[in-house]
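Q: Could you fold this chain for me?
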Amino acid sequence: MGIVISLEPHRIQKEWKEEKRLLQDLDVREVKATAEKVFTPVFHRFEFPYSFLEEACMDLALEAFLSGGKFSRYVENRALPFTFQLQAGAAAGGIAEELYEFMQCWVEDDPGCYYKEMKEAVDSFIMYWWKRGLETGVRKQSTDFRKR
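A: Sure. Below is the predicted structure, expressed as structure tokens.
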């Protein structure tokens, strides 16, 4: 009689270790500064620091950073193959869409806010942090490879 072993706990543990390694290079102050720089011009009547909008930006920048870091395992010759570019674009686009929808609900009554400007800011912000995660993951992998 054979024994059935679930690999799910092992996969989750491996994923947590990978995320922990990536997060060692993430500076929360930089995420806040980037969010403030990108979004303060978009929301003219809004004080950014310590707001619920800052919290949403932090959460989704972190998610984008980790997503980029996870895609780093597919990088070949300093580039992401085309098949993974499509998946990566969908992943980053989904994160950006989540932040955009959140902001859209918040600014419905703000006549000074332009949705196109806000969408561009959201896309820029999320792609910045996604690429930073990808770069961090690639750097960590090359460091690990040299240690072997």
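A (continued): The chain has a mean pLDDT of 86.
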